[in-house]
Amino acid sequence: MSTIDYTQELPTVEGKPSAQSIDDVISKPLDTKPGNLWKILITITSLMLLVGGGALGWTFYKGIGVWGNNNPVGWGFDIVNFVFWVGIGHAGTLISAVLFLLRQRWRTGIARFAEAMTIFAVMCAGIFPAIHTGRAWLDGYLFPYPNANNIWVNFTSPLLWDVFAVSTYFTVSAIFWYVGLMPDFATLRDRTTNTLKKNIYSILSLGWRHSSRHWQHYEKAYMILAGFATPLVLSVHTIVSFDFAVSVIPGWHTTIFPPYFVAGAVFSGFAMVQNVLIFVRQAFNLKHIITIGHLEKMNQVMLLVGTMVGYAYAMEFFVAWYSGNQFETFTFINRALGPYAWAYWTMVSCNVIFPQLFWIKKIRTTILPMFILGVVVNIGMWFERFVIIVTSLSRDYLPSSWGMYTPTIYDLGILMFSFGLFFTNVLLFVRALPAVSIAEVKAVVDGAQPSHKGGHH
Amino acid sequence: MSDKDINYWRGFNELNSDPDFLKAKRDEFKDELPEGFADGLDTSKSSAVSRRTFLALMASSAALAATGCSDYREKGAIIPYNKKPEEITIGNPNFYASTCTACANACGILIKTREGRPIKIDGNPEHPVNKGKICATGQANIMNLYDPIRLKEPMLKGSGSFSSVNWLDADTKIIDELKKAVAAGKEIAVISHTVTSPTAKLLFEDFAKKYTTAKFYSYELTNDINKVNAFKKSFGKDGLPVIKWNEAKVILSLESDFLAKDGNFVEAQRLYTESRDVMKKNGEFNKLYVVEGGFSLTGANSDYRIKLRTDAIEEFAYALISALGENNSGIDELIKKYNLKREAVKSLVEDLKANKGEAFVTAGAKFPESTHIAVNKLNDLLATKVYSKENFASPVMPLTAKADIDALVGRMNAGGVGAVVHFDTNPVYHFSPDYKYADALKKVGLVVTFAEAHNETSELSNYVLPVNHNFESWGDHKPRTGVMSTQQPVIAPIYKTRQKEAAMLNWLAEKPEAYAENIYMNYIKANWEKSVYSVVSAKVDFKTFWTGAIHDGVIAFNEKFDDTFTFRPEGFNAPALKASTAAVLQLNRPNYLTDGRFANNGWLQELPNPITKSVWDNYASVSPTYAEQLGVKANDMVEITAGGKTVAAPVFVQPGMADGVVAIDLGFGRTNAGPIGNGVGVNTINFISKNATVSEWLYNDVKIAKAAGTYEVVSTQEHFPIDNERYNDIHLKREIIREGVFEEYKENPKFLKEEIGKVELFNIVPSYEFTTNKWAMSIDLNKCTGCNYCVAACNVENNIPVVGKEQVGKNREMMWMRIDRYYGGHSDDPRVSFQPMLCQHCDNAPCENVCPVAATNHSPDGLNQMAYNRCVGTRYCSNNCPYKVRRFNYFNFRDNLADAYYEKDSLSLMHNPEVTVRSRGVMEKCTFCVQRIMDERQHATEEKRDLNGDNVKTACQEACPTSAIVFGDLTKKDSDILKHRDHELGYHVLEEINVRPNVTYIAKLRNIKPEKKA
């Protein structure tokens, strides 16, 4: 292995591809008929969607009693899944907006995909608050609409803040994503010979002609939207964490939750994006555009936020002890040693111990281990939400009301439904839209921009 | 120019506003109109709606009303109350006094009816025995009235199956058969439960005069017969004395659950806690010692609990007799042999000696005669004065001796019995299998069973005659001397049922076609005129006397009896019952199912056992160390063999039981009780031996062996290892339960407040000032015995659904109120604390601010309220409730159990119309019986007075047999609730989290020697 010359930036796109070849390689999946692998995959994911949908339908028919939720543990898989998916949705905005503002050029290869995943993840997340209510057909009550009874929503409830936070996040992410897609729609419109496709792309590209004027407006708009989206990265999961932090339940009533949740969200989001990108670059021959270098950077971010999450776990214990509050102390000892200790130690090992392997460059840059670690991190992050929600509720103040929570097959079915929805969307996305931003990649190819730094380009 | 600008006139006098004309115009229709109708009417000021507009509006409103009312979610016909009965005002309840027949105690009840439907049972406050209180079973009996399983008409068994038959045909045939039996000289056996009614006794006598071969038998699954026989031997009296528990300073219970199962426990609870009243100035506490092998509610309430295997208790009684005579060797030997708590035993002996005359010893009904004789001797030595001088409980008809039942079965088998009439009894289920009663029945020509619903016995009968429920029947009951309790129907029979006494009377009259509803009432009346009215020397005529007695539900009068109790040493010798080396099995009366006849009552099946908190099952309770010895864990199946009979049952590990003892409830394992009661638990009557060596309910030649498989017993409270350091005394560490010692309290009444210290809590927003009313509750833990009657009352009052075993297993029971049971100390010898837990109606309610739709919110009079219609069911409020008192409808629970059993039509009549029946997906919880508050508010408004908080009684408060619950308005300066809230022993649970709860708990004091604080 040759030594790295730190005076040189690593190329964002490897091998100086021409503009034409970038067009071709990125839009190839859109121009060709799907292969067998894709067909098999979408069969699996849509089956998950269907079977999981059956579980959901049965829930609507019978009542949410078919789940494992019970009296001390009012929230189980429903809210665990919600927080999990909102967390997954965090990587997209972080990559596309925050890294954009920070001028991190390596984001270009993965931004589009990450944004799409954000949107799909927030869609999955949005299902759970909607279905977790006992009377889902009355969910409209959660919106402050004028009505004859003059009944207003309760603005002091964090659950209401969630409604606004998540819907705002979804809206802004979707607009941001669409704006970024416009130049690519125009490129696709110009390339295609199919009349139907041409018409669709023409409408979607909103009359984009690649003129300098367009580019000038576009750059500004994109910058402003990135500015809008950036605070959302922090706010959404902060507000989700308020669902717990604002309550009086030991294990929930914690001021550390907002930063801890945001770090956790970025952690799980990056793990998910990394996992899916590994598939995409392999399947669509995009290894020179989504490079190992990109993946390594993602792994480094995961190592950083994973360690932050580990710090938060430690700090929770410290505060529980330092506060001298016996309820708090009990809750944390109960997490580590009580009946749900297995879940707690799964969480700690997946989120804190195993990601430490990313200190080893070999693991950071080799596909298989990093893929496994990404999966491990997502398992760990799912369990983190399970630990926070279920163990805290199962043993709170009065020992008389303690009770265990056991999920049912319907809980698992609906979790499967959400994964089915997510991956079906991902699979449809890679066949219907450019998975990597054509315009942006062209702009970061070596030599595409005038350079003042000298060096070899 | 519009209409209204033109002033039309009929003549000049109108145009010129001639005053005479205007007056004449105004008075034009005066004669036709009611007085004062047109006063002040000025047409010029009436609104400017033209006739046309008016008609158009009328027409459209009519059209709108017509369309609006037509077939929108068709709910069946609405029948107007156009013939209003005189005594019923829609929306106002009527109360009728009656008598409960759920068990042999015959307590007085007050039945609340709404629009002619009984909906709630409370004790009759006028009744001298139970004084306005009634047990859980009595309250839940309302469900049996509306139980869909009830028989709706007489049934005749054809070839193998039943078909309906009308009463006339049935009666005619039965009379015919009875006559044939008499003619053939064959016996007619009438088998009844305990007869508490003097008129029923007379009926039997009259019946036997006509049908000369008739004989009467009565039995109870669990009864006092050994106690009664012992009392007869020791004191030469038939019956048992009435105990004035309030006058005993030291009580020793030898495994007698007198607070829950033995004797009239409703009365005992009230009297016992009278001497545990911290509201009384300088009130002294009584002291309760319990020696037991199982774990009873009385044991849980004791100050000193000494665990001793049940079959050694008679020896203990004899040792105690010696100890009172200064011979401690026997006691010392027992202490050593069974590792008894020396301190406690010493203290017991000292206290008994020091309190002669005011000490009382009692033993459980399950003990043999010999134990009771020893107890009688003990009481004689203690010169106890707690036997009532006013009343004596002599039975109206004594229970039939076992030998006589055996003889009857023998005659049945020999063909000597022509007819058997089961007088609302179920002997096929209740009799020991040794009798082989079911086989004997096959040899009887005519088997008639009176029953509310099919049961194990009715299945084997020729005729099944449906009987009126308690609340549809007439009756009179004499539970003790000087007390006659009356029973009146409060609803016309819902189905084609008859009162069993009336049906029998009809057979007596031999004119079945002439049957009238009121024949038995007339019969009672005639009997009363002859034998009651003449005795009580009433100063009014009989009609007034009778109406008064029915109205009050009870009459109390002076009735002389021999009130001297002189002990005779007959049968008193040496312990007849000696501890064996094998295991001991005790068969206990179930907590709420009486003898299993309430098996199909979901409310009672789901009411937690006060100690184990388990529901919907019976199980073999063993101590933790004994379970270890046997190599079994909770829910493992074991095979118990007693007297050669084996029954398999699941294990329940019960801390605090004596090793070598297995306790299991009777009354379960019904096979033909109905969809709710079938197959719940195991039938332990199979153990009962007709020739039991010790007693029917106690066996000490028992073998227990682990059997294959497990069976899950569910409970409403989680079981965690109480010996583990993390959980040990957790309720005390968390200050959920605060307790003290009586003597310390006497020395320093403020000890608790000093212990709590000054709690400083602050709010960032100013607190709401409650100015009009503020509702609050107080619960005195010194008086709370943990009996669950409040829970039963709450279930009935608030239409709480039955969720079933599976759902309780998932922690989804719906009861708004629960009694939390905590074990303190070590699992070998736990100290029990009870705490009724319900919505605390916090001022800073954490549930309220988290509800996104504001479905739960605070009323200006301090109630935390739920708007069911607004609730979408996020369950956030329940998660954020520190007391976890909120209940969520995970299903439409009425639709979810036993093929929607609880959604059947008849059961909807049971619902309290003042309380919404909640649908699936909404949260609910205790409302502080807001409907009763509103009722009082309406009365106050009608009577133009201020609302008086003391007039509001919540359902739990009304039901509490010891009056531990006080409810009222905190803004009223001299209210009872304020005194309790400000009491020096008052505290709030989880005070430090600043939710400001409004349920004050009065800390429990134990009357034990102060322990040295570490």
General description of the model:
The complex is a heterodimer of chains A (457) and B (1014). Chain A is an all-alpha fold. Chain A has one domain (19-144, 154-444): Formate dehydrogenase/DMSO reductase domain (Formate dehydrogenase/DMSO reductase fold). In chain A, 69% of the residues lie in helices and 0% in strands. Chain A has helices spanning 19-31, 36-62, 77-88, 90-101, 108-131, 158-191, 195-204, 212-245, 257-283, 292-323, 326-337, 341-353, 361-365, 367-394, 409-432, 438-444. The longest helix of chain A is centred in the middle third of the chain and has 34 residues, at 158-191. The mean pLDDT of chain A is 87. The mean pLDDT of chain B is 89. In chain B, α6 runs parallel beside α17 and α7 (225-235) packs across α13. Chain B is built from 33 helices and 39 strands. Chain B starts with 11 loop residues before the first helix and ends in an 8-residue tail after the last strand. Classes of the chains: A mainly alpha (457), B alpha/beta (1014). Chains A and B meet through α6 and α11 of A and α22, β30, α27, α28 and β34 of B.
Features:
heterodimer; A: 457 residues; mainly alpha; Formate dehydrogenase/DMSO reductase fold; 16 helices; 69% helix; globular; B: 1014 residues; alpha/beta; Rossmann fold; Dimethylsulfoxide Reductase, domain 2; 5 domains; seven-stranded mixed beta sheet; six-stranded mixed beta sheet; 33 helices
